[in-house]
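ARCHIVE CARD
SHELF: 3
SLOT: left
DATA:
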Amino acid sequence: MSNPNMWTLEEQEEIRNRLIKMSFDYHFKNNEHYRAYCLLQNVDENIKSIDDIPVFPTSVFKSLKFHTAKEKDIENWFTSSGTSGIKSYIARDRLSIERLLGSVNYGMKYIGNWFEHQMELINLGPDRFNAANVWFKYVMSLVELLYPTAFTASDAEIDFEGTIKHLERIKCSKKTTCLIGPPYYIFLLCRYMQKNKVNYKGDDQIYIITGGGWKKNEKESLSREDFNKLLIDTFQLTSVKQIRDTFNQVELNTCFFEDENQQKHVPPWVYARTLDPKTLLPLAKGEVGLMSYMDASSTSYPAFLVTDDIGIVRESDEHHSGTTVEIIRRLSTRGQKGCALIMSESLA
């Protein structure tokens, strides 16, 4: 698997353009619904720029079974958590799932490089066989294919005592510990450890990776600064650099991992940009707008998306050269979602 630091900005742009165009060609030729959608917008296969590729709102997956893969090749239908209402249903074939795992492996290298015998993971969630088809739980469970992993939570409860025993066991083995889970579950673990006066001295031998957001527990959510402080105090961390968040959504086939400065990086096979919420025209880097992604790793469906997120896309040529994203908030009103609704109806 490639290393995040091996390409310059220019090399990443070349890779991105080539892979996204290949992905567009594939889905244009093999997905009649997407092809009709493109032609409706006067776009054929002869695009000049990847910015010419028609994107569609993620809400499409709430109302349509929209896929390029043949039914017999679909490994599973994955769903969103459904915390905001109707669930999305996304078809994935084996190659798309394998590439998703590749993105997790790639992203972990922003955290460090370990051999299998040097690290163990504790996942505050189910293994992939019990994650059913809920996307975030499945994504987080994939780490067990990279490193030995203990699973200490289910939908019903967190095994706090079991989690603490694993933390102490791995620490005594002199291996690096990686604790993974939704921020709310990590928050509950911290509260349990403080209430029961658990003295765990993690030093620089533990990393904490969160993902999935606070969702239905938003009312109890902490600011990033306060959350960082809680984790540093509870686990007695050496540095805030040991805390990383990840970004993914069910319609996207790639995970974005944070670097040591807590900046979320977009790998070169994904094109991230912001769009004007009213015109849906691309905005310049650094401008706040509607988040849009083109993900070349998906073969089972065309991942050319407009989301409900407002954010910023930046480029940097410093320590980790490449593209970063910052998600600010979700669209909140029906009026703001008007363009997306119209686009969704044209695909139906």
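SLOT: right
DATA:
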Amino acid sequence: MLCEIVFNAERKTTYPMVVFPYTRPPKTVVNSMPSGWFLGKSETGWMRGDVFFEYIANGLNKWLTEENIPQPVLLLIDGHKSLLTLEISKFCSENKIILYALPSNTTHILQPADVSVFKPLKTEWKNSVRMWQNYILPTIERNF
């Protein structure tokens, strides 16, 4: 599972997109998505060009319009080749979204959000999962 979140310098955030490893997601997953969130799907659960395009075209661009964000806008992305498609490039060019691809797989170093927000979030998530696995799950199994 992967979560795509875009925000600007004013700390405004778009609706997130969560990518699940399904070709047809279960109804429970679809029904549990918060209002406005986007559901992406790929066989692996990783971001692909078609999933990224769907988010840019129907999520980010719509949000930019609704929030009256002045254009052009700069969108920093991981330069992984799966995100850089001709379709995305054309759409962004037509809609005044400047794609700037950082060297692939370096966002954990070069993007401020990855360093200041997502790294601590991932650390806390891992700690919570570990705690659940070590303390909560055994208690549940013992009592049922």
